[in-house]
Amino acid sequence: MNRCFKNLPWTRFLRHFRATQVCSSQISRKYCNFSQNSEHGSWESMEGMLCCSANFVPLSPIGFLERAAKICRDRTSVVYGSLKYNWGETHERCLKLASALTQLGISRGDVVATLLPNVPAMYELHFAVPMAGAILCTLNSRLDERIVSILLEHSQAKVLFVDYQLLGIAQEALNLLAKSTAQLPILVLVSDSDCPSTIDTTLISYEYEKLLAFGNNGFEILQPKSELDPISINYTSGTTSRPKGVVYSHRGAYLNSLATVLLFGMRFMPVYLWTVPMFHCNGWCLPWGMAAQCGVNICLRKVSPKDIFDSVTEHKVTHLGGAPTVLNMIVNSPVTDRKPITHKVLVMTGGSPPPPQILSKMEEIGFDVSQLYGLTETFGPATSCAWWPEWDSLPPRERSQIKARQGVPHVAMDEVDVKDPATMQSVSSDGKTMGEVMFRGNTVMSGYLRDLKATEEAFKGGWFHSGDLAVKHPDGYIQVKDRLKDIIITGGENVSSVEVETVLYSHPAILEAAVVARPDNHWGQTPCAFVKLKEGFDADAPEIISFCRDHLPHYMAPKTIVFEDIPKTSTGKIQKYILREKAKAMGSLS
């Protein structure tokens, strides 16, 4: 196992983090002493000023649920098949679950992990765990047992909530974990009506509903001592080979929840279809954001085009989200799976730059698509392609090209810029000069768990370095061109894999495409395209290469075409590190 996983015990990480931020005894002075160094003196010298519980409460999204239970108690909160809860019931269930966790010995600062799809328990744990003063760690439900065991040890999780369909992976992970540690997390099984009665209960300590029944609905919530206390750990999604534990604070989660609600244009009581995994950046912070708006959460165990169309029409869904691959799945779905969209459905896409062709086709079906951009380290969404009214009159192709840009920072992110990472100078706003996207603000992570070196590297120069290459347009909107590690250098020229992929997606026979570098003795590297064809379509390598040369400078056109399924993470991101290894194994083209 990587040595950084053993660098620091979790308690030492907390001490280090709090020492560099603010301890609870200093919280008033930190946030009320707003002008101490100004020419007007400190707030203490201004007559009548006072910082106290009446005007300062540490920011935490826990309060969103309490508010929803007060003002919309009888309104629907969660729907899962035939199961339905209202906000009063959800609040009570979360209180009881928080109480039950404390009875299991969970205390402030402990980690509680999940291995769950988008089911009601996953939603409830987003509130119950921080209500108990603990830290939520949502593990990717598609990880194998080896990685799950590593992340359980790294996070030092004391409880693991696992879905019945993932129980085998969890049990194998605990068997592996037993070889390196004596203390295993308590295993809690989450089941539903489809759970078989013959399920193996080895290592299971509790069943979810029975555990919840032990709890007290009069439980007194353990509010954070500081709004900078950790609320969750999110492991990076796996587009690189080694996930890192990204630590979120209560403050950042609160702010990004509200910012994401604004990005989605969510008015009071929206209906949100959960197509984005809640384990990914805590579902873009929308478990908390939906409570803030007293909305209806439509939970889906599995995502398919038919389920999406059925849910949209049955529940009058107003909002949904997903990676471009989810949108691609929708626009290429069989006509028999579709239902007419008769009301406005807002769709947010993110995770990778979407091909304009996909955005255009989504509009044709009836979905109104906008793009957001961010990383796990920015609590998910950080920028959006904020739409100007005058763009409505543009031709569809131009609208789609504008929507493919990553845009401007949301209201909770202080600054986003495109900089030369060597000089830290901003690049020209010419739409051509590439630099690295960098962030600064309250919705940037606290750091990487037990990896101070990686944290310091990411924050070099006082900005968070994203690793994404982008240009900045004259209107200030940024447009991501590639990951730093994905840029292809052929004959001294930089080739954006995203630009090549956009052309490939415009080919009528191509369903999915990904471009990486292949070694070349003469050119150094050349573009290598992995493509998956649409069902019933045919195309060979020479035809696709010729098509690309007709739409790109010849040096940018792929010289190698590989026909196969493209590996993705559970959030729909293409795992280019796997494709890079495949291209490397092919050897030099010339």
From TrEMBL:
<protein>
    <submittedName>
        <fullName>Uncharacterized protein</fullName>
    </submittedName>
</protein>
